[in-house]
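Notebook entry, structure prediction.
Reason for the run: the old model in the group folder had no record of what sequence produced it. Starting over properly, with the input documented here first.
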Amino acid sequence: ETGTGIKLREMAQVHSAGAMAAARARERALAGYRKAQDEDEDEDEETETLMTDETSPMMDEDGNRVPYPKLLRLVRSDGFNFFIIFWVIVAGILVGIQTSKSLQDNAGISAVETLILVIFIVEAVMKIVAEAPKPNRYFSDSWNVFDFLIVVVGVIAWILEHAAGMDLSGSGNVVLVFRLFRLFRIMKLLKAIPQLRIIVTAMINSLPSVGYISCLIFLLLYVYGVCGVFIFGDNDQKHFGNLGIALVTLFRVMTFDQWGTVLYVQLYGCDLTYTDPVKLRVRVRVR
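New structure, fully documented this time:
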């Protein structure tokens, strides 16, 4: 082997060793960078936690500091919402059970109802306090007003039934309204379940359009009522004797209430369906 070949081989070995050293250096630098980045992320998380819990308090919609942030998070949490939904369902089931007269005065059911009333009272108080420093914001939501009204009526009914000793189970008692009002507790589900609340809100917002639809239906009934009097009035004065009766008959047909009778009178004549007193009263022409 010549001297030139030896020198080339040595140069190749040196170059290979340099490349390997450079690769190891790059790997160490990359590992150091990743470690530093992880440490920075940990510091950012600690700083964010510190800012949230200590130096950056929760603010309300008006920019005021919330004095009870943990309570506000609790009443807005899914767990608290599911807890209220559970007791609303129980309250609805108890109202259905009490339709049985043998269970209306059951002591166990009364105790559970009292517990449910206490839970709803605590819920309302917690939500009002959580809205501090402006607790009146609780009443800015119509659903909260509905919940609060249910609680107030429930408290009044409990006082009348237990403290004043009134019997609210009698059907002739005016105070029975308070007892029946407990049925509206099941309506709390509309607030607790967002999907139901969206549907109800959409229905309420569409009420003005329902008025126009009602006008359209009335116009159709009016047109067909007039046509019915002109076409069937002589044959069937019982159902189409005048415009008012014709409108009622068309409404019956729309609801499928004995519409077959109206059909057969027009097909086969009124003598097959009218009794003699009816014939005399409406003075029909039998054909």
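Summary: The first helix runs from residue 3 to 55.
The old model has been moved to the deprecated folder.
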